Amino acid sequence: MNGTAPASATALRRDRLAAWVMVVPALLLTLAFALYPVAQSLMSSLRRRFLGVPALGDTFVGLENFRLLAQDPVAHDAFARTLGFVLLSTVLEVALGVAIALVLHEQFRGRGWVRAAALIPWAIPTVVASQMWRYIFNDQYGFANLLLYRDQVARYEPWLASPAWAFAIIIFADVWKTASFAGLLVLAGLQVIPDELYDAAKIDGASAWQRFWHITLPLLKPALLLALLFRTMDAFRVFDLVFVMTQGGPGDATQVLQFYGYKTLFTEGRMGYGAAISVSVFAAIFALSLIYIRTVGSRLLGREDR
Amino acid sequence: MWCPVKAVPILGALAICASLVCHATGDETATGASAPTVIRFVSWKPDYPRAWDEAIRIFTERHPHLRIEREIAPHSSTAYHDLLTQKLKNRDPSVDVFFMDVIWVPEFAAAGWARPLNDRFTEASQEAFLPSTLEVGRYHGHLYGVPSRIDAGLLYYRVDLLRKYGFEPPGTWNELVHQATTILDGERAATPTLRGYSAQFKQYEGLVCNMLEFIGSHGGILIDEDRGAARLSDERTLAAIEFVRARLLGPLASRALLTYQEPESLAAFARGNAVFHRNWPYAWEIANNPDRSSIAGRVGAAPLPGSDGIPGVATLGGWLLGISSLSRHADEAWEFISFLTGHDMQRFFAREAGIAPSRTVLYADPELLTANPQWRSQAAVLHSATPRPRSPVYPALSHIMQRFFSRALAYPGLDLEPEARRAEREMNRLLDLTRSEAP
Questions:
Q1: How far is B370 from chain A (nearest CA, A)?
Q2: In this predicted model, what pLDDT tens digit does every residue of A200-214 receive, in sequence order?
Q3: Among B413, B86, B5, which Cα is nearest to B245's?
Q4: Does residue A53 belong to the interface with chain B, where contact is any CB pair within 8 Å?
């Protein structure tokens, strides 16, 4: 540390090397488990390969699959539906997350328990939660119907048979499942806001609403943006809810891009086209995260620089 | 100082690689010379696991040099298809025997996954099977599967309710509507949850099976296989869909059918909530089982209705057993398949699990007929069932049809014809791809 100049230079070099050595395994793992599959999908998306039609061969077709995708009305529908899902679920989740975080931030008896309980939906595997909601909205024995119509069994509603309701229920189930995760991120943001600010505001006579609007919300921005980032990216990949609850139906009302890609790739055996769908989901998430990192990141860093 | 630091990950990586290699070779050496040959059988999760365990026990008892290793995939046909084709596509050599749904044979044959069985499945032995089940195992002149069980759509009905109102099982769909309406009017006060019809209208393969029956019995078809052209926008096809939308769904049947596969639709019927019910032969057993049904003993089965002058149509379903083209134990695999599809085992599964056998002679077996009296009337339906379109791209064609049918039923105001034409165009594009395949 306190050696002469050339000695510290070798020490620096040695440190660098050590750093590399330590990073390389992680890097290799990332390459093997993240980059390789992505690269592989990208390669397949540029080829035409249809398992049921081997006569078509396995040929390089450039961007042909993406050109077809751009003209595929089913893909357009699925894309629009996915965007709608992302928008609605993310906004609701973050809004609800703020409410949850505000409650969990308060001092009250049994707060530890409530905090743990709030995370239960998030801890349940999505497939299990989806199955649960499917039962709850069942037309014959669903709890939702029991709650609404009690013993008037003849009035029981087949919720998932209606395209609009099915879509709303998928969003509802996702919000239920992940609002607490958003809440956790927001809570972390709440906890770093110094209490003195509130005390000072109170002395100045600010109401609770004013304190929330002028202190909490602005200082919460980084945490909110982080929650938004995580939720948007995650929502874009929605699959299990649809797979378990509706299989994309009725009438494609809940068919999101990832499920369309799954059907194309795994059931239809259209390897190239299916890969092109996954790649476009990847590209959309990648673009979204770039935008977020640009805006959120600069804001986060900007605050630190000041 | 950093040398050991560098060595750790490398050693770690080496250790991981070494363990992988050891594991791989370990697997190989496990199948030594004296050990029995292992036949890997990828199966769906059976409805009657005990009958299957027993069958495999009998087989290994008679063939001590063979051991059956079962890999149980999900119960759902589509999930089983996706898992199995994933293995075959990745050229997994450990798969020997598998089931094929009757709609998969062209795909499995074209993709080179299933082994042609012509040498083993001789013409003499073929004669014992129902012709319709053999036909679905054929692709471009070769046989790829041995029929293991047969399925066909049937109309189940409430004997007590039909009798009460003086009805015989309906011969046409209009009669069915008339009977159900009359019965619902009469029973509304006593059973407010009673509906006229229960079937499988969820967006999945079963929807195609159900719609094929409506369309066929209105004189339409799904695909003109000779010309390789979809026929969804034909007048008769659209009339059949219109019948379901306007006269069944809503007035007679709950829209909940749009969320039903076989189990849910059967549950509604078995709970006494439907006058008529469309399902496969297995439903007889459950609907008449007092432990699982509140209408046991009051259930009848009949052929599905037709429409003025056109007979009813039953979709052909069922399972064939095939051998993977990469199997290294094809002879042993064939031994296993011959055993499962042999007279004794077909009889065993029919008796133990109520599964409709693929061998013709068993439909005249006195003991089986006593246990399954419904076979007497169903035999004709099972024998003349209509297969779904046969194409190596069937899964993709089916998705287009599922989307079209499901949209037609889910959106009552949807203008059918343009939607049908769009679906046809998509299907024809796929069919064109396979035309180059034809010999």
A1: 35
A2: 998 998 888 888 888
A3: B413
A4: yes
Considering only CB atoms, which chain B residues are within 8 Å of A163?
410-411
Task: Return the sign of the alpha-carbon dihedral for residues A56, A59, A65, A67.
Answer: negative
Q: Is A18 on the interface with B (CB under 8 A)?
A: yes
Query: b vs e for A146-155, b when ≥16 Cβ sit within 10 Å of the residue's Cβ?
Result: eeeeeeeeee
Cβ atoms B332, B399 nearer than 8 A:
no
A26 touches chain B (CB under 8 A): no
Contact A282, B238 (CB under 8 A): no
Q: Over the stretch A87-104, which tens digit does the pLDDT of each residue have?
A: 999 999 999 999 999 999
Q: What ipTM was estimated for this complex?
A: 0.87
Query: What are the chain A neighbours of B82 within 8 Å (beta carbons)?
Result: 266-267
- pLDDT category at B25 given cuts 50, 70, 90 is very low
Q: What pLDDT was estimated at residue A7?
A: 65
* pLDDT of residue B19 exceeding 70: no
Of A192-196, A226-230, B105-109, highest mean pLDDT: B105-109
Residue B253: name the closest of B325, B188, B311, B196 by CA.
Answer: B196
pLDDT at residue A9, as a whole number: 80
CA distance A223 to B121: 68
Mean pLDDT of A34-56: 90
Q: Which pLDDT score is estimated for A6? A: 61
How far apart are alpha carbons B151 and B355 in whole angstroms? Answer: 9
Task: Mark yes or no for CB contact A161/B410 under 8 Å.
Answer: yes
pLDDT at B103: 94
Distance from CA of B16 to the nearest CA of A (A): 12
Rounded to whole angstroms, the Cα distance separating A118 from A184 reads 9
Interface probe for A, chosen from B140, B144, B259, B264 (most Cβ of A below 10 Å), is B259
Q: What pLDDT digit, counting tens, does each position of B79-136 carry?
A: 899 999 999 999 999 899 999 999 999 999 999 999 999 889 988 889 999 988 899 9
In angstroms, rounded to a whole number, what is the distance separating the alpha carbons of residues B106 and B357?
Answer: 23
Residue A152 — pLDDT band, cuts 50, 70, 90? confident
For B326-385, how does the pLDDT look when each residue is reduced to its tens digit (9 = 90+)? 999 999 999 999 999 999 999 999 888 888 899 999 998 999 888 888 888 788 888 889
- Residue B229 pairs in a beta bridge with B224
Chain B: closest CA distance from residue A184 (Å): 35
Cβ within 8 Å, pair A52-B82: no
Which residue of chain B comes nearest to A25, CA vs CA?
B9
Q: What is residue A188's predicted lDDT score, i.e. its pLDDT?
A: 92
Contact B259 A247 (CB under 8 A): no
User: In this predicted structure, what is the pLDDT of residue A31?
Assistant: 87
| Tokens of residue B166, six digits | 């003086």
Q: Residue A262 — left, alpha, or beta (φ > 0 → left; ψ -120 to 50 → alpha)?
A: alpha
Q: Are strands B274-279 and B195-198 parallel, antiparallel or unpaired?
A: parallel
CB-CB neighbors (< 8 A) of A252 in chain B = 203, 403, 406-407
Mutating which of A17, A61, A140, A255 best tests the B interface, going by the most B Cβ atoms within 10 A? A140
Q: Which of B2, B394, B434 sits opposite A14 (nearest CB)?
A: B2
> Which residues, 6+ apart, have CB-to-CB distance to A286 below 8 Å?
none
Nearest to B255 among A158, A268, A269 (CB): A158
Report the SS3 class of residue B229. Answer: strand
pLDDT number for residue B22: 41
Residue ranges of the alpha helices (H) in chain A? Answer: 5-30, 36-45, 64-71, 73-105, 111-118, 120-123, 126-136, 143-149, 163-191, 195-203, 208-211, 217-236, 240-245, 257-262, 271-292, 298-305
* Cross-chain residue pair B399–A268, CB shorter than 8 Å: yes
- Option in B13, B268, B406 nearest A140 (CB): B268
**Crossing angle of the two packed helices B205-216 and B235-243, in degrees rounded to 10:** 110
